[in-house]
Amino acid sequence: MNSLNRSGLKNTKARAAILKILQQSNRPLSAEEIYDGLVKCNIHVNASTVYRALTALCDKKLIGKTNVTGDKKSFFEYNAKGHRHYLICSECKKIITIERCPLRAYEKMLELETNFTISGHKLSIYGSCPECKDK
Amino acid sequence: MNSLNRSGLKNTKARAAILKILQQSNRPLSAEEIYDGLVKCNIHVNASTVYRALTALCDKKLIGKTNVTGDKKSFFEYNAKGHRHYLICSECKKIITIERCPLRAYEKMLELETNFTISGHKLSIYGSCPECKDK
DNA sequence: AATACAAACGCAAGTCATTTGCGTTTGTAT
DNA sequence: ATACAAACGCAAATGACTTGCGTTTGTATT
Asked: Phi and psi (nearest 5°) for B89?
C-alpha cells in the first residue's frame, strides 16, 4: 500500500514516477518539465495522461499547484514539506527555500479587516544572490 | 499632449478609453472586462486591438499586468499607485487590492541572513470572500 | 489464478485566452 | 495637404491545457 493507493488512486507507473520526480526536485516544475522527466525515465505516456495525473494528485493533496512566473504555465511541487517560500535570484535563477513564514499574524489581521476566510498565500521574493550581485 | 503621446503612442479612442476604465477601477480588470467596458462606452473595437493596446500600455509602463488567480487570464491595472498586494477569492475570483505591505522589515532581515540584495517580491493571499464562504 | 469493472489511458478533437500575418485605415509629423 | 509608420480589423494560428470516447489495466472479489 503506497501513498497513491492510500489516497484512493490507482498505482500506475506514470503517477508513481511523477511523485518521485517532484519529490526529488528542489523547485516547482512545469507540466512540460515533468513530461520530459518521465521520458528520461523511459516512461512514455500521453500529455493528457500527465495533466490528468497532475489534476488527480492535486485533488488528493499529494502535490500542490502554483503559478509563480506570471505566464500561462502552471507549476507543481511535492506536498510533504509544509508551507514555504522561495527567494529567487533574478540573474542566475537560483532558488533558496525559505521555511520561515512571516505572514501568520498578518493574515489574521486581514481576516478581521476584510471578512474573508483566508486559506493561504503565495510569496516569492526576488533579488540578486551574493555571487551575482558583484557583477 | 496626453500621457499616450508622451509615451510615444498614438492617441486612439480605444487606448484613451482603456486608460480611463483602468483609472476608474478599484481592482485589476481582465482583458474581457476591459473589452466589455469599451462596449459600454460605445467603443467597438476588435479583441486583438484590446490585447495590442494592453501590451503597448504595459510596455510603456502606463499600466501593469498581473496573473494572480492561477487560471489562464491576466489582469491589468492603472499604474499610479505603487507597490501592492492582492487578496483573491478562490471561488469567484474577485480581487481586493491591499495597499499596505507587511514585508519591508522581513526583507531587511532576509538580506542580512542570506546576503542577497532583494529587489522585490510578489505576494498574493487566497481565501473565500464574505459572499462565497457561506455557500 | 480467473473475473469484473471502475479507473486510467491513448488519441484526436476541442477550448479558451491570447497572438500574429496581412492588407487597410488613421494619427501625427513635415 | 501629404506621407508613412503606427494601429486597426479580420481570420487564422498558438499554446497550454481539457474532454469525448473507445480500449486497456489496476485492484477487489470470487
From this structure: -80, 120
Residuewise pLDDT in 10s, chain A (135 residues) = 789 999 999 999 999 999 999 999 977 899 999 999 999 999 999 999 999 999 999 999 999 887 765 567 888 988 756 677 878 776 666 677 787 888 988 999 999 999 999 988 888 888 888 988 777
Task: Give the gap in angstroms from C-alpha A117 to the nearest C-alpha of chain B.
Answer: 5
Q: Which CATH architecture describes the domain A3-78? A: Orthogonal Bundle (1.10)
Give me the amino acid identity at B28.
P
Cell numbers placing A81: 514539506
**Do residues A31 and A51 lie in contact, with contact meaning Cβ atoms separated by under 8 Å?**
yes
Domain B1-79 has CATH 3.60.90.10: no
> Is B54 within 8 Å of B73 (Cβ atoms)?
no
Give the architecture (CATH level 2) of A85-127. Answer: 2-Layer Sandwich (3.30)
Q: 3-state DSSP helix/strand/coil percent for chain B, to nearest 5? A: 35, 25, 40
Residue ranges per structural domain of chain A: 3-78, 85-127
CB-count burial class (<10 Å; 0-12, 13-18, 19+) for B123: buried
Closest CA to A134 of A92, A97, A98, A101: A92
Of A107, A117, A127, the CB nearest to B117: A127
State which protein residues have CB closer than 7 Å to strand D. A 4-5, 10-13, 30-32, 47-48, 51-52, 55, 72-74; B 8-10, 12, 14-15, 44-46, 48-49, 52-53, 56, 72
